[in-house]
Amino acid sequence: MNADETYIDQVIAQLPPRDARLRDQVAMELRSHIAERVEHGQTVEDALRQFGDPIVLAESYLAAIPLIAAPFWPRAAARLIDFFGVLAIVAMPIIGIVVLTLWREQGFLIPIAIIFTIVVLSILSAIYPVIAEYRYGKTVGKHLMGLRVVRESGARISFGQAVVRQLPMLTQVWWIDMLFALFTDKHQRAFEMLSKTRVVVAREEQS
Amino acid sequence: MIDMATGRDDDRKGIERELKRGSLELIVLHLLSHGEAYGYEIVTALTERTNGGLEVTDGTLYPVLYRLERAGFVAIRWETPQRGVPRKYYRLTEAGQAELARLTQEWNAFADAMARLLRQQPEKS
């Protein structure tokens, strides 16, 4: 791929994944501005140097679009949807094991199954959002509630940020972290402030 | 990439950058008041009109133009050539002209006040 298209891709990658309109708009605009410089006798590299760091450029564009902080209750609902989704997936094989052991009269396996469920459930409840929020900017729960996760600038979050966001879920005091969202400026959890991310209302395909 | 600017040199540049950022919309609206232009023309016009005293990179200018476009102060037009990449033209809207007048007045009031302040000598007692 050419240097200019690689650069444009790097900028676009920071924009909301589902906002095709914005992505097209910015790509078309950048192509146009690069062409202007080339027509005035400059190289593509000169033009790209003028644009600077692709992530900073993407964030400057995003600064033009106001972000609306997601309210507390839709966020809580999204979290519950994700939790029960994971629970349903984890529970099915577990129930199978329990039924099987009762049937074969091997009751000692039941506590093991219960502990196994709790461990797998808590790990998956933390891992699923990391992957989903990093890849798609949202989980199924957030999608259903019309929310998405972004950097404070509005750009796409990094993998590291996605991990830090979920760290409290591995502890017993995740609810303290969650309560922060009731009182902070942008309705951020403590670990969202730490990871410089926030949850906003998704507004796709609008001008 | 960002948030790394903690050195002293960067601090001084930071002040200049903040000043520029605050006045950039005014600069762009003013340049467009001379008539419709495309991006590269705006960049070079700024350098020429100020003899290089003020310069802006594309990476700074275009997000500002995008913000002004979204705010309705600037209207755009795409011109598609026979062959090659379409070119984006910018021009002021009526709302943009009103905003330009407002920002110009604000800027002049600020500059006057600053000039008055900086002219004052320390009083000797």
Question: Can you give keywords for this protein?
Answer:
A: 207 residues, 2 domains, 10 helices, 5% strand, elongated, B: 125 residues, mainly alpha, three-stranded antiparallel sheet, 61% helix
Task: Describe the secondary structure blueprint for this structure.
The complex is a heterodimer of chains A (207) and B (125).
Chain A: H1 3-12, H2 20-39, H3 44-51, H4 54-62, H5 72-103, H6 109-136, H7 140-144, E1 147-151, H8 159-166, H9 174-183, H10 190-194, E2 197-201
Antiparallel strand pairs in A: 1-2
Helix pairs in contact in A: 1-2, 1-4, 2-3, 5-6, 6-8
Chain B: H1 8-32, E1 37-38, H2 39-49, H3 58-71, E2 74-79, E3 87-92, H4 94-119
Antiparallel strand pairs in B: 1-3, 2-3
What does this protein structure show overall?
- The complex is a heterodimer of chains A (207) and B (125).
- Chain A is mostly helical.
- Chain A folds into two domains: 3-62, no CATH class; 72-201, no CATH class.
- Chain A is 65% helix and 5% strand.
- Chain A is built from ten helices and two strands.
- A two-stranded antiparallel sheet of chain A has the order 1-2.
- In chain A, helix 1 (3-12) packs antiparallel against helix 2 (20-39).
- The longest helix of chain A has 32 residues, at 72-103.
- The mean pLDDT of chain A is 87.
- Chain B is mostly helical.
- Chain B has one domain: Winged helix-like DNA-binding domain superfamily/Winged helix DNA-binding domain (Arc Repressor Mutant, subunit A), CATH 1.10.10.10.
- Chain B has helices at residues 8-32, 39-49, 58-71, 94-119; strands at 37-38, 74-79, 87-92.
- Chain B has a three-stranded antiparallel sheet with strand order 1-3-2.
- In chain B, helix 1 (8-32) packs across helix 4.
- The longest helix of chain B has 26 residues, at 94-119.
- Mean pLDDT of chain B is 85; it is low at 1-8.
- Chain A binds chain B through residues 26, 28-37, 40, 47, 50-53, 55-57, 59-61, 63-65, 207, and chain B through 1-2, 38-40, 57-60, 62-63, 66-67, 70, 84-88.
